[in-house]
Amino acid sequence: MGDLFLNIFLVAKFIFILLLFIALVLSIIYLAKKISRVV
Which 3-state string (H, E, C) describes the chain? Predict the structure, then answer.
């Protein structure tokens, strides 16, 4: 049972990091578009 909980925790952590990375990439793209529009 402990192993199952550990696996769920690792998967949840991986998904959280993945979502954080996607959000970061999207915000960088958004800012780049905003800056390029001004220039």
Answer: CHHHHHHHHHHHHHHHHHHHHHHHHHHHHHHHHHHHHHC
What confidence tens digit (pLDDT) does each residue in 1-39 have? 679 999 999 999 999 999 999 999 999 999 999 998 887
pTM above 0.70, yes or no: no
Burial 12-35 (b: 16+ CB within 10 A, else e): eeeeeeeeeeeeeeeeeeeeeeee
Structural domains of the chain, count:
1
Residue 31 structural domain: 1-39
